[in-house]
Amino acid sequence: MKRAKAALAALLMLATPAAMASPAQAEDIPAFDFADCPDLPDRADPRFWTCNVIIVNGGKFVLGKFDQVINKQMKITYATGLDPDTRKQVTVFGRLRAERMTVRKGIFGDPILTAVYAEPQYAGSFDVVPGPIWKMALKVRIINPVLGHNCRLGSDRNPLRLNLILGTTNPPPPNTPISGVKPVLVSTNPPIQKATIVDNAFAVPGAESCGLGLGLLNAVVNSQAGTPAAAGRNTAIFQQYGSFKKYTDIVP
Amino acid sequence: MKSVARVSAPLAAAAVALILLPGTAVAAESTPVIRAGTATAAAYSGKIQALSFGEVYFSGNAPFIGLVDTTCQYAQLRGGVNSNGTGGYVNYVQIDNNGSGGACPNNQGGTTTITTVNTNGSGTIYYDDDHANNRDTFLKLPGNQPGVKIKAVIEMPAVTTEPQTCYYGLTADTPTLEIDLYNPDNPNRPDPTLAQAQGSAQGQQFYLMPTETNDVYCPEAAAAFANVVVKGESVPNSGTYNQKLYATKAP
């Protein structure tokens, strides 16, 4: 009982501003690897494909009342290519790797029972379309022993649908427009760019499978996190570095 | 024409392909006779012009953002050929948005300016005994022709404030390119309402030149899509391209 109360107390702290670890240092250029580059589709010509890696190491994620500074790296690997016969672009997702971020440290100094973590996860679709717009389906795993292993905001069936851009957004109220930052090359060999992509017009679904995997605590999580949260009440700001490799340098 | 997969050619090479009429195919190539207008007309050797109709597209994949698709409204290529398909060359290429040098819009919010730096490419036209792609003849362009160089300055203001300068050509590893050519009475020619010889590039590829300094966002390869009307000169060296052309198989 005492354990559950402590965990619940931790959950009740979810909505308070997180006094979190400081964001990554400004010019701390991460190391890139291309291990997650996806295989090319059958008959694809490698000259028309690149493998792209984005490492998000700063920014914020506002999901309802859940205001999270991004203080852990997220690595997104994807391939873009062109069918030279049809002029159609094809995007193939590789992998999202994200470390759990501390939403709220253990209120009693306990790093396990009363701490709450958030972990972004890929939710089944990713595309890059002219604009450019990075269209990404995400879900966010909320981690705490009482919540169980599958507590999430969003799911593959009902994800957060982000449309991240370099330009200026046009969100519904109460959000106001925000702007990304166009890429700046910080290295030419290897090619590495620094940029910020944003979206504050997306909705956040409610919690699922929180509490013994049966959803017994969905309402508690939703109450504290302010979810489901309609478009206009959520924000994603991804400060990132990006690098790429041509598939002619990958495919033997 | 249906492009040959994994075949590349620079723009000028594609231009050579578009202006040279008959040819012999890889698997079923024969020597052609290029003629002045009909299947029984006299042989024609001389200058040739290929002039686009409809839109001309150049498509490539850039890092991070994917498709960079440029649409031009005008392409003109000039060169010459012998009546047996040999000696094909191109010595003039113009690609822009209006015939007067305007930059072509692209799908990344900017424009692409295409400039011919060198046009010193060559190829051979063959008659296709098998009529692949319903063609009559085709132009074969070998790779590794360093005398061909096309400069493209690509603006992508939504992505970067720096225009991207890219050089494309026939590089050392460029495979042989084929472009389909059609007689004026071929029902499968690109525009059956035009009773003129026609050529078609559908995905002809040309590669970034590693010997040049290219910017980071330059697509490594670009595919060209264009349909052209092909004509000769009724009066040699007149500069007036009004001669209908026709290709037959050499006896």
Provide key terms for this protein.
heterodimer; A: 252 residues; mainly beta; 7-stranded antiparallel β-sheet; globular; B: 251 residues; elongated; disordered N terminus; signal (chain A); Secreted protein (chain A); signal (chain B); Secreted protein (chain B)
Can you characterise this structure?
By secondary structure, chain A is mainly β. Chain A contains 2 helices and 13 strands. Chain A has helices at 2-12, 218-225, and strands spanning 49-63, 66-69, 74-83, 88-98, 101-104, 116-129, 133-143, 152-153, 160-165, 181-188, 191-199, 207-208, 234-246. In chain A, a hairpin with a 4-residue loop joins β3 and β4. Chain B is mainly beta. Chain B has one helix at 11-19; strands at 29-30, 32-35, 46-52, 56-62, 66-72, 74-81, 88-96, 104-105, 111-119, 121-128, 137-141, 145-154, 164-170, 177-182, 197-208, 221-233, 241-243, 246-249. In chain B, a hairpin with a 3-residue loop joins β4 (56-62) and β5. The longest helix of chain B is centred in the first third of the chain and has 9 residues, at 11-19. Classes of the chains: A mainly beta (252), B mainly beta (251). Chain A binds chain B through residues 43, 45, 47-50, 52, 54, 80-82, 84-87, 89, 91, 128-132, 166-167, 182-183, 185, 188, 191, 193, 242, 244, 246, 248, and chain B through 2-3, 5-6, 8, 57, 59-67, 69, 107-108, 158-161, 202-203, 205, 207, 216, 219-221, 223, 225.
Q: Which spans of chain A have pLDDT < 50 for at least 5 consecutive residues?
A: 1-25
Rg of chain B computed from alpha carbons, rounded to a whole number of angstroms: 17 Å
Shape of chain A: globular
Main pleated sheet of chain A? 7 strands, antiparallel
- How far is the N terminus from the C terminus of chain B? 26 Å
Signal peptide (chain B): 1-27
Organism (chain B): Nonomuraea endophytica
Protein name (chain B): Secreted protein
Keywords (chain B): Signal
